Amino acid sequence: MAKARTHLYWKRWVWRLKGDNPSLSAVEIEERLQALVKEAPKNSGSPPAARTIRDIVKEPRPAGIREEEFLSFRWPQSMERGDLPWEASERCLELLRHLQGERPSVRLAKWFWRVSLAIPNEPIGRRHALAQWLDTIEFFGVGFFDGGPPELAGLTEIDWFLAFRPWVGLENSEAYAAAIGRQKE
Questions:
Q1: Bond preceding residue 48 cis, omega within 30 of 0
Q2: Which pLDDT score, from 0 to 100, does residue 69 have?
Q3: What number is the average pLDDT over the span 8-16?
């Protein structure tokens, strides 16, 4: 019988947990992954067992993904290592405060900073949700995540979405739809 492949969602968590704490054993990582089952996307399957975790730790990371992006954001260490520019500090610390004790990954902090530059006056919850979505799209590809905001399903031109802010109201939503329609012509 062929061994089931581990979903990238779980691999990403394995790399992050091991990167943040290299002394964690595969069994300890397995226990932490079990705590994440309720938050996992529907199509991600079960978390890997300790034996599989040991194999995942040795695997190369996906092409184009820097090892540091799997680490948890820590100020000032993330800036000192060059993972993020110092200018991102204020927004990344804002995200850290918003998450109330949960540390974002460097990758999520990067996207939160970028989204905050684009739409600085939006509520933090919306900026966080968009940053999570973009983080997922960058890592897994556009079609991966079924549970994202419906208005972003299959979205490849995020600039139009951020520029028109269709969530604000009907007028913005109609202008956004018209702009996208013209774009496709």
A1: no
A2: 82
A3: 88
Long-range contacts, stretch 6-11, CB < 8 angstroms, 24+ apart: 6/45, 6/48, 6/52, 6/56, 7/43, 7/44, 7/45, 8/62, 8/139, 8/140, 9/40, 9/41, 9/44, 9/140, 10/40, 10/44, 10/45, 10/47, 10/48, 10/56, 11/56, 11/59
Contact present, 69 and 110 (Cβ < 8 Å)? yes
Task: Give the dihedral of Cα atoms 77, 78, 82, 83; nearest 10 deg.
Answer: 160
Give yes or no for a contact between 121 and 148, defined as CB atoms under 8 angstroms apart.
no
Question: By three-state DSSP, how is residue 181 classified?
Answer: helix
In 26-152, where does DSSP find H-type helix? 26-34, 50-58, 77-80, 89-98, 106-118, 124-140
Instruction: For residue range 116-174, list pLDDT tens digits in order.
Output: 999 999 999 999 999 988 887 777 664 444 444 444 444 556 788 888 999 899 999 99
Contact 180, 160 (CB under 8 A): yes
